Amino acid sequence: MRDTRESRLLLVLLVAVAFALITVDIRGGEDSPVDGARQAAAAVFGPIEDGVSTAVNPVGNAVSAIRDSGERHDRLAEMEKENAALKAKLGSDDRNRSRLAQLDKMLKIAGQGQYGIKGAQVIAIGAAQGFSWTITVDIGANDGIRRDMTVLNGDGLVGRVTTVGPDTATVLLANDPDFTVGTRMEAGDELGFASGQGDRPLRVELLNGKAEIKKGDRLVTFGSQADKPFVPGVPVGVVARVDPSGGGLTRTVYVTPYVSFTKLDIVGVVVQAPKKDPRDTVLPAKPRPTPTPTVTVTATPSADAPVDGQIQEEQ
Fold first, then answer.
1. What are the beta bridge partners of residue 301?
2. Contact 265/121 with Cβ under 8 angstroms?
3. What is the pLDDT of residue 33?
4. Is this model's pTM higher than 0.85 or not?
């Protein structure tokens, strides 16, 4: 339609009529005279409106779904972050529980032997210090650590302190080839010297070449003069093999150490020796032997077997 004077007058007239009808409809309420016309219009245009709504709703749903999808993605990312933090916490808790167990076991040994110890954590291994079997712990001279102090953990003898810095110390492990410690056999009191052999069992030379030693016998440290470098009574290991050649001046046995030198974490440096030799009291309780079941076989005579005193005649 062209924008002319007549078209503008027609538009104004239609607007005035529309306002008049609206006013009449509102004042009429339920008895409005235009109600019938409105219902007829609804009957005509209702199906068209439903069709348009059906066509448009998927678009609206898609927009809503995209918005919800973004929200779900954010929530999923948040949940994944929470799960990762929870797993990290659980891992940390597992490690803390392991360390607490190690510390508890070490304090038990210290209590049994009456050793005064300083707890420490292993922070480095021997690879950074040459080819020796050594570890570095996170305590040093500022903590009262001195050279030639005994080092143990919850299983037994770990080694001895060789080098001390202000806040760290180096420990030579008992399985190092340069390591030697005096030992005493449990109960029998046979003395000897144990030497490290790397990842192989400790080699122990007993002073008595005719000593009666068997597999499963246990050893502890004999102790040193003035308790340096070794205090007495620290568990060393269990005899795994006895050298069959005997009768010489010494006798060789091979001992599996109590300590696993490849899994060291929490250790203790003995800063105060016991007033009295603990002897064998620090050794772990011996495992109870497993009873061997006894099988009794009873012979049952068959039905065809002759009864005692009865002779079967040949037919």
1. none
2. yes
3. 59
4. no
The Cα 37–Cα 68 span in angstroms is 42
Stretch 97-107: mean pLDDT, rounded? 90
Query: Is the model's pLDDT at 154 over the cut of 60?
Result: yes
Whole-angstrom Cα distance, residue 278 to residue 222?
Answer: 10
Question: 3-state secondary structure string, the chain?
Answer: CCCCHHHHHHHHHHHHHHHHHHHHHHHHHHHCCCHHHHHHHHHHHHHHHHHHHHHHHHHHHHHHHHHHHHHHHHHHHHHHHHHHHHHHHHHHHHHHHHHHHHHHHHHHHHHHHCCEEEEEEEEEEHHHHCCCCEEEECCCHHHCCCCCCEEECCCCEEEEEEEECCCCEEEEECCCCCCEEEEEECCCCCEEEEEEECCEEEEEEECCCCCCCCCCCEEEECCCHHHCCCCCCCEEEEEEEECCCCCCCCEEEEEEECCCCCCCCEEEEEEECCCCCCCCCCCCCCCCCCCCCCCCCCCCCCCCCCCCCCCCCCC
* Interstrand relation of 169-173 and 180-185 (parallel, antiparallel or unpaired): unpaired
| Number of CB atoms found within 10 A of residue 110's CB | 20
Asked if residue 242 lies in contact with residue 257, where contact means CB atoms within 8 angstroms, the answer is no
Residue 303 tokens read as 């039905």
The tens digit of pLDDT for each residue in 30-71 reads: 555 555 555 554 444 445 444 544 444 554 454 455 445 556
